[in-house]
Every structure is written in C-alpha cells, then in structure tokens.
Amino acid sequence: MEVAAKVNALLDIAQVNLGDAAATYVAEDAAAASRYVGV
Question: pTM score, two decimals?
Fold first, then answer.
C-alpha cells in the first residue's frame, strides 16, 4: 500500500503540474519510475 500511496501522490503532483510544466513532469516521472523499478 505504501507504493500505491506514492503513486497517488505522483498523480496528484501530475495534475498540479500538467498546465505549467508537463514536459518537466514527464522527465521527473520517468526518473521516479526508474527508482520504483529499482526497489
């Protein structure tokens, strides 16, 4: 459930950032996905 909570937080951040910095978020999301896969 902890990972699910982190994913939900990322989705919330995505919704906030979509209008301002969608490209930046995509890069950050890719990095975050890499960290989750590493775990």
Answer: 0.38
